[in-house]
Amino acid sequence: SNQTSRKPDSVCFSHWRNFRDRFFVTVLILFMLFVICGGVWAVYPVVFSISTFCGIFHCILTGVLAVFTITSYCLASFKSAGAPADMRWGSYPMVGKNDLENYTFCTYCSKPKPPRAHHCRSCKMCVLDMDHHCPFIGNCVGASNHRAFVFFLISVVISCSYAAGMTIYSSYHIWPPLDFENLASTHRSMGYIKMLIEIIGTLASSAFFLSARGLVTVYIAFASLSVNAGIGVLLFQQLSYIYEGNTYLNRLSSLNVMHGERGLQNLIRFFGCPYSVSRVLSGYSNTGKLQDNSSSKLL
């Protein structure tokens, strides 16, 4: 068989990938720190004005969400994505009989490549159950850190939803008074579009009188909503692939579209649910399948 190794990528191309990953990781870390610190600085006067207990409660909740988000990010970013066993091609004493069944040859690593493994040119290694290479964590998403990556997405969705709610509530209390007198007197003579333009114009003109704390609050509100929308779509996609027993790269391959069996048991196995919970959910999933099969037979 032809097992010639491919030439490695150029030095400039490798440096560009490393620079891109480090840039995105740095920007994301700074953004998370800005949202956490800036949000606390901008929102805490409004929260503590309600009551001391409310302020302390939200400070603790913010700390828990921040620790969970940063911890899951570090695990996804700095933990190995899942490298296969280091076996050189032709080292027969290290390999037992049929141990390399269904393996292929990686022309980049010059090593046997397990099934469902892919070579990442950015990480310069093969990754088990590789889903994709994410520049925002500077790492591949594979067998070892896939769960941490999904937990990071979940924590981002929860944290951004909380940040958006708190900043919108605070913006309502710190926004300068709005002058809707002209709008109230002429709302019968103008259409809905003109009325909407008038409202937007009034809000924009009053925004010039916002303090620095108010501007930070409004920015975090819009940023949280935007990030929440994008990460929410990515989280839904990830959970859909896990439910199908597949990964993003395997889904792209026509040979592996139906590689895994669809079902709730894939999510249970992925998240490592306790035995009691797994048994209940598996029973529920099997009951649904039996009902589907019986209904199809009746039809």
Automatic annotation (TrEMBL):
Places the protein is found: Membrane
Domain Palmitoyltransferase DHHC per the UniProt entry, residue ranges: 102-251
Record's bilayer topology term: Multi-pass membrane protein
Keyword entries, A-Z: Acyltransferase, Membrane, Transferase, Transmembrane, Transmembrane helix
Pfam family, one: DHHC
Gene Ontology terms: cellular component: endoplasmic reticulum; Golgi apparatus; membrane
Principal EC category: transferase
InterPro entries per UniProt: Palmitoyltrfase_DHHC (IPR001594), PFA4/ZDH16/20/ERF2-like (IPR039859)
Main location class: membrane
Enzyme Commission number(s) of this protein: 2.3.1.225
BP terms from Gene Ontology: protein targeting to membrane
Listed transmembrane segments: 23-44, 50-78, 149-172, 192-210, 217-236
Catalytic activity, reaction form: L-cysteinyl-[protein] + hexadecanoyl-CoA = S-hexadecanoyl-L-cysteinyl-[protein] + CoA
Family: Belongs to the DHHC palmitoyltransferase family.
Comment field on protein domains: The DHHC domain is required for palmitoyltransferase activity.
Protein name in the entry: S-acyltransferase
Organism, scientific name: Oryza sativa subsp. japonica (Rice)
